[in-house]
Amino acid sequence: MKRHPFHDRLRAITREIVATYDSSPIPAHHIDPERRLPSRQAIVQILENLFAVLYPGFYGVQHLTAENVEYHVGALLDDVAAALYEQVRLAYQFDATGGEGDDQIRAAADEAVDRFFRRIPELRRLLLLDCEAAMDGDPAARSFAEIIFAYPGFEAITIQRIAHEFWNIGMPLLARIMTEHAHSKTGIDIHPGAKIGESFFIDHGTGVVIGETTVIGNHVKIYQGVTLGALSFPKDERGRLRRDTKRHPTLCDRVVVYAGATILGGDTVIGEGALIGGNTWVIESVRPGARVLNTPTSQARQEKILDRTHGFGEGI
Known about the structure:
Layout: H1 7-23, H2 40-54, H3 69-95, H4 102-137, H5 144-150, H6 152-168, H7 172-186, E1 189-190, E2 195-196, E3 201-202, E4 209-210, E5 215-216, E6 221-222, E7 227-229, E8 250-251, E9 256-257, E10 262-264, E11 269-270, E12 275-276, E13 281-282, E14 291-292, H8 299-309
Parallel strand pairs: 1-4, 2-5, 3-6, 4-7, 5-8, 6-9, 7-10, 8-11, 9-12, 10-13, 12-14
Helix pairs in contact: 2-3, 2-7, 3-4, 4-6, 6-7
């Protein structure tokens, strides 16, 4: 067989690349057959099966009947349990410090999977409330089926609520793989650590960013391009970023945040019923019921717009 003209050159480049694996202080490689990483592909498949459990007939098999749905959901959960146990075990094994034996890792994986499965009925209750919030909040929505099938915000919230359960049981790697999958599909970036109350609605959604320590109350609605972020990044005495502080804002019940608004800071609290206008920059707390608008000179006009749009799905 004729050798490729770049063969020798590629062999030299290969050796040069491989040499950087051990010389770099940053471990941007993982070569350890004893500690395999979880599989992104397997985790995405787990999410797809969970969508079929949470929204049967909309995802997965569509020819369901009252007689076969219980069998179908049971079979799906069997598949999810087996696949999820393996991914959780690999995640625990990867994060192990060396003192944990195989039996201890397997027991921890068993417990984590059991804890997640016990949360699925509550997850479905919360997600149905989110679906209802979308219907109540968007006059363009013509059916619940449209929301479940086609709304990127609803898909991102579903994945975040699933991922949040894994975040809570100490599975941050699996949780981040899930929410970054949602981010890549929808353009909506919600950290799995964010705490989100009931009846949450993201309209349109593209460009939404919600940080790790964000707390969101009940019946909150936000629009595209909204950022709930950190105002600054505190450091310890050695100059390293502190990761144990509240860096992102709190939105109380019934807050509405319009398109392009940026709300920053762990001490920033948006009071109950407040409205944050489009393209505003908020770095201080806002009292309950207040309206924060972008330009003082156009305040009267913006208040009229807010009066017309509050409670509906079309942004300003």
